């Protein structure tokens, strides 16, 4: 590996660490139910962005969407109300779209 490639690799790793480590520290300081919601919602959002022409794979995606996303809007609203005075929680949760479910009323 050339020196220039090593420098680029090191710079990329350092940049990743600068973003990941603070995120981990914030996540560790959040209430357990908020961290659990964030994990589930991130998985939900991953599957929301996926589609497949293969019917079997699409069925799997649909099952995961139902499992991970059902009730997400109400849970987000509940957590935002419960932790309204906790800035770290609000900052962590306000990045999520509050209306991803079809029948969810706007907040």
From TrEMBL:
<feature type="signal peptide">
    <location>
        <begin position="1"/>
        <end position="27"/>
    </location>
</feature>
<protein>
    <recommendedName>
        <fullName>Secreted protein</fullName>
    </recommendedName>
</protein>
<keyword id="KW-0732">Signal</keyword>
